[in-house]
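Before any further analysis, backbone shapes were mapped to integers, which produced the following:

***
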Amino acid sequence: MIIPIRYIRLAGSLLAFLSLGNQWLSAQTVYQDKPFQQDYSVKYYIDKPTISLTGVACDRNGIIQVASSEGLLHPANGEFLHPGTLLPDQTYRFMKDMKLQAIGSQNQQLVYLSQKAILSNAWAGKLYAEHELPQATIFTGTPDHTFLVSDGRAVQLVKDSKLLWKGSLPSDEVIGAHFQPATNVFWILGRKSLYTLSGADFTLAKVLGGSGFTAFALTPDQKVLIGTNDGYIEVDAVSKKQLGPIHQKLPWTDITAVAVVYGKTWFGTTKGAFSLRPDGKYDYYYGERWLPGNQVTAISEGPKNSVLILTTAGLGKICFKSMTLYDKAIFYEDQVRSRHIRNGFNASLDRMEKGNLATGYMADSDNDGLWTSMYLGGEIFRYAVTKDKEALQNCRESLDAMERLYTINPVAGFPARSFERAGYINQLSDPERWQHSPQAGWDWKSTTSSDEIIGHIFAFGAMAELVDDKTLQRRAITLIDTVMSHILSHNLYLIDFDGKPTMWGKWNPDYVNAFPINVGDRKLNSSNLTAMLQTAYHFTKKEKYKKKAFELLQKQGYLENLMRPMSIIGKAPDDADEHSKHMSDGWNHSDDEMYFVGYWGLYRYAFDEALKAKYKAAILDHWQAERPEKDGAWNIFAAMTGAKNVDLPEAVWYLQEYPLDMIDWSIMNSHRKDITTIAPNFRNQTIKDVLPPDETPIQRHNGNRFTLDRSNGSSGTSEHSAGDIWLLPYWLGRYLGVISAPVGK
């Protein structure tokens, strides 16, 4: 178990700084990579939307059946990321004539309710207990096969086709029933009341009155949980008293199903399903990342600790697999290599048909160089830790792509954003930015931005330092020198094919210091350029880089700029120029990404220890501002400084909670009742506490982790690569030693 060590604030800036210094001298916490339960979903859709799905059950052999308005169905051909369908179940061919109206399980066997009887194919078919309620849809039984049956109005107890008792709920409609073996009591739920029926003397007793009841379940700790159309109620099964007020701080309060599955409480609603966690909060399963539809009709135990969630659109099987972070990394490594490598670039799979991986193509991106740099960085750290030859080959192939960015265009020292085969410009993103290459058969993308450059320098520096292949080291250092020579020779601008600076490739003091001090680009560009110059000097030893860096740090205020606290970053003042106002309309998460990949060169290749100490303070100041987002990458990058507390538990939480399904499904959270919204603010934080990554939209580290919804009408059309999103922070954590190799396997 990891015990978080919280950052202690001390009065006065000097004392605070000294406190941080003491932390740097302390040993860092290391997460021991033990197995955890990774959830994922297998979905089964119905082909005919007119079919009504009423119940689902599973037997001890793992056989799943679904009761429907057109007879029994079973799931077919589904696996993770490859949905199946619900098809007519013909395994017992004569069951289709039984006019089945409900399904359940008894002693881990499938049991059915027909218009005439309760029956089963288990126990050699001996179970056949007739009843007198041809419209019955509700039943539950005891271990000795005494069954309660109801059509909503009447209630009967039958055993061996003998009627033991009959009655009804006074002025109410039955909607559910469960048997409690420990007390030999049947619990019966109506729309506005809860009753017990003794299995010994058949005494019917009212326990609770109310309204809007929809579903219920009995828990192992002697509670009755009653779902309503506006939350759920807890009742003590022993005292028959309600426990506290109704629970309404839930992901959604319109409850349609309640079940206890393998000791865990689950709720189905009209907007997805959720389960109760030990800490009193909820894991929310919404949208096609998890379920075929969001209108839940039933929840039941599935095979191998899975949970079956039946919806109006099909069946979702929530599975749980024991994994370490290393296991998850290997899964993601396969995901990247099999579907996300385009010309050596780390790419997304786009234009899929509703999550069908076979229908997408690897798309070009405005930031092919940046996303590939971040993936390449992860593979460099992987190789540094494992010496895996596959990781080294991945590095070679990505470096090939990165290197060609510099040769595909005619501008010396200038890297293209991307390249692609000639003749398809109109089908590529931002076609107006594409140019024909001097190399026959190819086109290249211009307007390269500063986030590309800092990504390149980060990856090339890591390769030059950590990869023990002399050829790769030499190539990486050459690329550092190439792009930085271009920038220096063009007065700290990145000059495009048209002889003009690109929109964002500007580090000249005339540009940087024109921003007001509270506009983020002044701090960012100063930080990034210092990191780039330090990296160039560290590996080339060319004095021009060191000389320029100290000129900027000491004479142009770049040190003051980069050390400026994050707390002052905000909107430009009213008298600022329009460009400054445009650049400071809110917190820029792409800037965060540029800062942190740049911190590798800023801190690691600092010119001297005095500067290094200052850089630590700046990095940790920025990290403090980022803590609410619990982004795994930023927390682990902060560990580079040696600080003891970098919210490692939160970083591990991020890595564990990231979904295996990285398809861009529609996600909705703004309707939730269990989140606390906050007032609009500069950082665009929408709620008090960030939600887990598997409950929010898939996004790179330049996205806002507080984004609640994504519903753009194109659900399931793209799959993101784990290369930059997940593998970079994991392998960086392994390299820095704050995440261990897998243990306890």
About this structure: The chain is about 30% helix and 25% strand. The longest strand covers residues 36-45.
